[in-house]
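>> received
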Amino acid sequence: MCRMKRNSLKSSLDVCKIYLKGFFGVLENNYESLRVLNVERNGNIIYTYKDDKGNVFFGLYDYQTKQNEHLYTFEKDLQVVSCSVNRERTLLAASLVQAAKEGRRNELQPGSRCLTLLVEIHPINNVKVLKAVDSYIWVQFLYPQVESHPLPENHLLLTSEEKYIEQLHIQVTQEDGNRVVIKNSGHLPRQRVAEDFVWAQWDMSEQRLYYIDLKKSRSVLKCIQFYADEHFSLMFEAPLDVSLSDSGFKLVNFGYDDLQDQEKLSKHPTLCVFTNHTGSLCVCYCPNFDSWEQITYSVLYFHKGHGKTFTATLGHVDSRVTKGITFLSLDYYVAVYLPGHFFHLLNIQHPDLICHSLFLTGNSEVIDMLPHSPLQSLSGSLVLDWGSGKLYRALLNQSYLLEFLWNTRLDCEKLALLHCVLSCGRDPRRLEAKIIQWISENISACHSFDLVQEFIIASSYWSIYPETSNMDKLLPYSSLLTWDTEIPGITLVTEEIPLPLMKVHSFKGYWEKLNSNLEYVKYSKPHLHYNNSVVRREWHSLISEEKKGKRRSTVYVRNILDNAIKVISNLEARNLEPRLTPLLQEEDNHQRLLMGLMVSELKDHLLRHLQGVEKKKIEQMVLDYVSKLLDLICQILEASWRKHNLHPWVLHFNRRASAAEFAVFHIMTRILEATNSLFLPLPPGFHTLHTILGVHCLPLHNLLHYIDNGVLLLTETAVTRLMKDLDNTEKNEKVKFSIIVRLPPLTGQKICRLWDHPVSSNIISRNHVKQLLQNYNKQPRSSVMDKSSFSVEFLPLNYFIEILTDIESSNPALYAFEGRDNVDAKFVEEAALKHTTMLLGL
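>> returned
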């Protein structure tokens, strides 16, 4: 899942060893001294090793070319504290101490324990001493965004064990062709960046410095952003409720740090800051271990305005914690890993519900796949294994996540894995096909949530999320609003936290997104996630008006139906392959109304809350989102249709149902349940196909129960086909009559004309008479009565027939009797006579 497997991914350090052997001719027994020192912003790895004489070699592994380059050699037996090289590879900064060997004289300057040097290496030339002090110094060149041409000035950070950080400005110039030398070597301007801090973290990929100082015994987190020129800005201050000692000192991501006592550091509180491109800001904190039975750690989601404190059970009392906890940044997730005990994958975009994060205990095979030695998290998802010295890039392995999804049994793990897989975003069509295959095999396996519903909502969300920022606040991420089920092995407490105080007023890039998130937390307490409640009310209103014969303005309805046409066109453009299922082939005005209303309401919702985004782009995003909802439903049906090898003849009623049709009918019923509760549209033709399969698969009493409870909707297309396909056996007559009496009046009148049967004749006649008498006004009549062809001996009936005949003849165009071909006149006469005698009590 978290891809740091030695078999499938070579570490960068392994590659370094392979190239070193051929490039430098280093002996095999010198590999033990090979050590990663730093990873620069461009991905280049700086390492060191010693030869048999103790000489210190500095090398660089180029991330782009996969080649090694020798940078410099110190012909003294020294130990390297820190090292950094500028972007142009013309300057090398290094901090060194006396190697820990007895009987050796001090190779450094007298009275100093640590020597910090600046070396010209293009070509190798002068060496300048920057500091010769008793405290350790860590060095780091700044890497600006500008990549087009060499910069005339370089900037170097010096971080001292004496709790201060300063910036040196180094001007360089070219002499004798390509020779690069320091221009102002006599005096390098210095600038104090921070001081009196107890903890600091360097973010190489974003060129940011985080540090904590203690103000009146309270920890305050500060962040400094460095820019392409020499200036830097304090971006924010945030109070932290963490326990840090004023006497302590810890650095994070200032290179490979084997000089700070690892045994001492394992007892020191662990603290890391993580950000990502969406404007998230997380602080992960684990205090000192005080129990071997459980461990407590906190994650402060500043971009959400709250923090969560987790307590994880460690299992057996004798399973002591011998290694420190590791926090890893994995794009939309932060991983918390305690070797041999647990792995917690925290969703930082949507941290509200614990079920959207994955918690695995020590008996999981995932734990066995990860390194069991202490890990150090570096910038850019890099991880350093202290035990082996190997450097990894930690990534979420989509293939393994899918495999794990198939095998897991807990609902909370299924839910977390589903969202995690979708967030990976690589080859979404293939990914959705695999998830749909899993859903079809496990359609009834989840009891805590609706699997189809969650997949449709989550996949639609991730399809549109990268389009613009703030989508996580405006579109639903999950169908769940709460989660009350306990997750084995972990508990949590949620509390609000003070928001960071921004110290600048103009924002760009990440800072603009972070500020937007903070503003949302401050001023938008009600959730802005879109839902279809307004669409539900408007749709029911339109359908009710249609049943009563009323209509909204033609322009309004036409605009809604035009929205639906755009959605279906967009959907068809996405999928060029011919569909197996007969969807999108009929009008189905009710679903088109729902589709169009959702487009209209969602567009208004995004226009209200997405500032600075073009209207045309928002309209296209809305079409894409609604199309995606429908496409996912089509994909589920297509996969089920293909799996069970159904053929077009299943659409005919004059045959028995197969087990395959039962399976597809069950899938369609689950899709209907999922969409009904969220009031989502269905592809036109869905209800027709569902009803046809229902007639095939269900006994009559069950079929009528499904119809009466709204599970099966009697579309005109489905009932028309039923009337034509089924003959008039006693069983089929019962089915037809049971369905006809459940149709809306207008649809029922149309369908009756298709069925040549006395029952349909009776219904047609009743409806016709009812229509004639609705607006009947009694008029004086002539005493002379024409003998009608329908005259009978029963005088009241004769009189009634004459009245009807007069009404028809008064306006033939208005009262034309449709469906005359299917009327049995003798049957109508007998039925009318019987009905009259019943009413008169004769």
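>> Residues 303 and 517 are 5 Å apart (CA to CA).
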